[in-house]
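Reply to dn_fold:

You asked what the input looked like. This is it:
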Amino acid sequence: MKRTERKSFLKAKMKKYVGKIHLWLGLASGIIVFIVSITGAIYIFNEDITEYTRQELIFHGEQDITNKRALPVHELKDIVNAYMKEEINSEDVTVPIDPNRSYQFGFFKTNPEGWNYFDTYLIFKTVYVNQYTGEVIGVHNIRNNIFFFTMILHRSLLLNGSIGSTIVGVATIIFVVMLISGIVLWWPKNKKARKQRFWFRWKNIKNWKRKNYDVHNILGFYASFFALIIAIAGLFLSFRVLGTYTYTLFNGGDSTYPSFEHYKTTAPESMETPETIEQIIGKVRELYPKAHSFGLDLEDHEEADHHHDNLSVYVKGGPFTYHDTHLLIFDDHSGELLFNRPYKDQSFAEKAVGIDYDLHVGSYFGMTGKIIGFFMSLICASLPISGFLIWMGRKKKKKQTPPKLTA
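and this is what came back:
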């Protein structure tokens, strides 16, 4: 056998094995890939749609606010808890930088032993409050929200968090292998074959099986590069250990994350007054006037289920992104600022790990990234279907082929 012939033989054999791997992995994970892809496409514009449809809650509509002062957060919390009469009290608030936006108080209770969505999330509500009057503008039950339901279906197939996310994570690993193997199978043998692989040439094609084959191959090829980014970013959300490995890689082999534990509340509790938290809110707004919002954990009292050594405040930089977060640490008794770390001061390793979610949903690249992510997710959802149809067609063809007669 000549050298060129042997090389062609080995290539053909390799493609055959790659094809079998692609086929069986696709059959094994197809339904999960479809569910995860279609729910991902639905969820991508969640925050944009929520912002648009919930305007009357997000914005309080209070007039002449420049001459008004917001009521103390603890007073607002008491108003909300009295209004809701839930079995739990709200102990956290999201404070907007924009004074035209409403304060949001959260009610959240889960059952750690629940095995599915309905058993796990017992209470999950957001209460919108006009901080200038104390009026409860409205209550949104997130547990019944279609986007939240879609997100949990996307992340864990509505199963217990650890079990469901592991199943989705394994299916995503298989999907990554399938994307790579798909590119190998797509790769044309020569220049002539290459012309047929980049776009649909259906002028003289009437057979739907051939058209389905082209859809699977051509759309799969164009989507594969973006889909790899989305899928790999998703793996970081399913398997947090990948973030540690990535951090270590970009941090020169050192896996130690920055520690801020030495910043502790030292002022006596007697110094804390209802005005302390207002002082903290004012300081955050002063330092980050162009940010979007920040959360405050108000649960630090005798009946609380946890206590903190300080008050750590994470300031969300943009409305639809999460990587650009600033960190402030306060003495929660005196309101003194102990530490301020803007996003720009994070190391490259921290930034590389922190962009996983925004990369996954496309928001890292703004609306353009979300639109691309939406269409790529739809294409990914179509691949298991078109691939299954190809397999069924070939299987049916084999059954119809008569056996060769021997003399």
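The radius of gyration is 27 Å.
Hope that clears it up.
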